[in-house]
Design goal:
Two copies of one chain form a homodimer. With 458 residues, chain A is α/β, with parallel strands linked by helices. Chain A has two domains: 188 residues, Aldehyde Dehydrogenase, Chain A, domain 1 (3-Layer(aba) Sandwich), CATH 3.40.605.10; 164 residues, Aldehyde Dehydrogenase, Chain A, domain 2. Chain A has 16 helices and 17 strands. A seven-stranded parallel β-sheet of chain A has the order 10-9-11-8-7-12-13, sandwiched between helices. In chain A, strands 16-2-1-17 form a four-stranded antiparallel β-sheet, with no helix packed on it. Chain A has a four-stranded parallel β-sheet with strand order 5-4-3-6, sandwiched between helices. The longest helix of chain A has 20 residues. The interface between A and B is large, with 82 and 82 residues. Chains A, B: GO terms for molecular function: glutamate-5-semialdehyde dehydrogenase activity; NADP binding. Chains A, B: Belongs to the gamma-glutamyl phosphate reductase family.
Chain lengths: 458, 458
């Protein structure tokens, strides 16, 4: 196998070459990809069966989790493979994120400026067991015009090899270079790839928190992703009980291991003997462990509706300070009383992972203060944190979720895979020099007249 | 002085607090800043005089360049101080980059999603001697709603201290926190500040290449800036002589030490005995040193119009391979012949710093190939690379120039200092949970109806 620098350089050269390929050729490549994967279904599933055999041995030996084995599996679910193929067509049907003019000015007679969206360049996508991610990312890369290097887990070695053969075979029948999509599987390649900042423009880690954090720490290349999803719900003084129950239970229970699930519940202290015990009883009935600070705990102990709850003894316990910085990823909530909306905002800004946080309130003033004051990608009023998702936002697809503060934030759709370039074109007989512009004698000012955003010049 | 972590934390808390401050208060803060600096003009110029005294001693001792001394000087030019004050009003008059809705969808009855632009958070701006940058960045930070930590050079110690007193005094009369703008001057603070990625969201280095490169290498915090400005002009086979001369001479001579000045000239080999000697004669007459590869050199030697030029012997010499990777920042051009537009594109993609590159051509096909194929922030047709500038693009101000491929690229205006957050609000009586959406029985689909982009909900 070529070394990391060669892989990165090949990707960069493929990207450069692909810039001259028209976008309808990218559509044709997506169709070719789908057709090739349809034809190769039996081969890929056979390769996947080998990975599953190997994985079962690892699971039996206690060296692999059964969750990982399940993620690896492309065949137990009847529709998984076909859903993967449909995903290619879904991506194909989305609007082209490139070639959009987002700023245009007439600078002078016969001198035009257009800012045009374009691909970022070379993506390095690092993920764990799920082999369908290979196809998903390949489709997104082709659609957005970016070359990609995909690094999957060693657990899916055979599936990945079979898919790569099919993907590169399909690419070789298109206008895109064969090395436009490359896959690597050895874990030792990661560190060398992360140092290829000359050729790789963006790293997208999709996997465990520790994987993401180690990449964020190790690479000079910009990273788009999230290490943590520590979301909070604040139940404000004015909250209505049924809304609070509806929003908190949904935020916590619908998919506890998702990054947009709630981990912390803040309760206004005015509600400790009223709404809080009722809400807590609903949470206990939903099987949620509550780790409470002294005020919220004592309120539950002294309320008959909770202290007599069958699950009280097993699910309610005092919290420790670390609980408010913990992403539980299971049916556990850290609970804390706060004296005001301002204190809730301060707590969340200090402890949340800036992913998605929610206020349950009837007060417009507090809804506004929370929405403006919380420094997170998602600021929600009376809605479950679980809405934070690219599909739910209407993006059609999701590249990932970013808790960064630059480039793209929150759920990221195809827009997150593009940047822009400035195209300046002179049509004057002598071309355009800058020396003639200015306030001096014989010099002229810039026009800066807005131009229509419609079509990119090239 | 507080340590770096305390400075960064104070900035973060100031930013969080400022999120609840209305944007018209930011306007009032800019006016207060301008008034305070007007009143304190004599004090600040007196402090600046002390810095200049100290600097003159350093220059005399050969420990400082006279260029640095000149940059430090706020008083020799009559209008410099007043221009700085006018700059505050100019920034104030620009459109508010925050609070803009860039995506909005009705997700369900009574459930709305708005993507609203907002400040990034805490900026760390590192610059060298020019003290007016303090005021310029302060104005940009206030306008865009970002808190800022400013690290100037030790040469402007007294000026910076006097300005800081005035700026913080002005802030204390406004709704913004006093620590919203902080300045630090000790060089030893840089490394500690660059490690405060928990509190600082973006580093903007404005200074020498080595400063910028060392920051890009040392920090986990995203960096917006450019280490190099290695721009190229390609004179294509179809180029018209007067355009080529106009564009190349302007690109090279109007400000040779600027990042948007041309450093490399590529000449189509079909022009070696025709356009090239005429262009070279113009370049020699403009005092430009030409470092030529063998074909371009031998063409000049064999052409009477250049070989007989008075400056030929002193200004024309063979190039070395490193010349094509060198940002000369003076009146020197590296010149190379290329056999095709495709070769010019490949050379530029391999050697340029992805800042701004230009083709001089009469061919629409080659203009298109160049504009699409060059992976740079600016791709120009028949126009000088020196147009690459925020003011010239019509941004009203320039935060810097980015050669990065994410977030912001090319000349960066106020838009580069904002990101966005997603505001989701339910107005339904029971709030909104995700569990009711889906394709199962009794579940409903998302609407995803576009909403007007006008007003942010909060």
């Amino acid at each position: 196998m070529a070394n990391a620098e060669q892989i990165a350089l090949d990707a960069k050269l493929s990207f450069d070459a692909s810039q001259l390929v028209d976008s309808h050729e990218r559509h044709k490549a997506l169709v070719a990809l789908k057709d090739a994967l349809t034809t190769a279904k039996a081969d890929i599933l056979a390769a996947n069966a080998r990975d599953i055999e190997d994985a079962k041995v690892q699971v039996a030996a206690g060296k692999m989790s059964s969750t990982l084995l399940k993620r690896l599996d492309l065949q137990s679910s009847k529709s998984k493979y076909d859903d993967m193929l449909q995903g290619i067509l879904d991506v194909d049907s989305l609007p082209d994120p490139t070639g959009q003019v987002t700023y245009a000015r007439q600078l002078d007679d016969d001198l035009e400026l257009h800012r045009v969206t374009c691909p970022i360049g070379v993506l390095l996508v690092i993920f764990e067991a799920r082999p369908e991610v290979i196809v998903n990312i390949t489709a997104l890369a082709i659609k957005s015009g970016n070359a990609a290097i995909l690094k999957g887990g060693k657990e899916s070695l055979h599936t990945q090899a079979a898919m790569t053969t099919v993907i590169q075979g399909a690419l070789s029948t298109t206008a895109l270079p064969r090395a436009y999509i490359q896959t690597v599987s050895s874990r030792s390649e990661i560190a060398s790839l992360l140092s290829q900042d000359r050729y790789i423009d963006l790293v997208i880690p999709r996997g465990s928190n520790s994987l993401v954090r180690s990449i964020q720490n190790d690479s000079r290349i910009p990273v788009m992703g999230h290490a943590d999803g520590l979301c909070a719900v604040f139940v404000d003084e004015s909250a209505v009980e049924k809304k609070a129950i509806n929003v908190v239970v949904d935020s916590k229970t619908t998919y506890p291991s998702a990054c947009n699930a709630a981990e912390t519940l803040l309760v206004h202290e005015a509600l400790l003997s009223t709404l809080w015990p009722t809400l807590a009883a609903s949470l206990l009935s939903a099987g949620i462990t509550l780790r409470c600070d002294p005020p919220t705990l004592s309120a539950l102990t002294s309320s008959p509706s909770t202290s007599s709850h069958a699950a009280f003894a097993s699910l309610v316990s005092p919290s420790s300070p670390e609980d408010y910085d913990t992403e539980f990823l299971e049916l556990t909530l850290a609970v804390k009383a706060v004296p005001s909306c301002a204190d809730a905002i301060a707590h969340i800004n200090a402890h949340s992972s800036h992913h998605t946080d929610c206020i349950v309130t009837e007060s417009d003033d507090n809804a506004r203060a929370f929405s403006r004051g919380i420094d997170s990608a998602g600021v929600y009023v009376n809605a479950s944190t679980r809405f934070a998702d690219g599909f739910r936002y209407g993006f059609g697809t999701e590249v990932g979720v970013s808790t960064g503060k630059t480039h793209a934030r929150g759920p990221v759709g195809l827009e997150g895979l593009v940047i822009y370039k400035y195209q300046v074109r002179s049509r004057a007989a002598e071309g355009h020099a800058t020396a003639v512009f200015g306030t001096g004698e014989g010099q002229r000012p810039f026009l800066h007249t807005p131009l229509p955003l419609g079509d990119a010049p090239f």
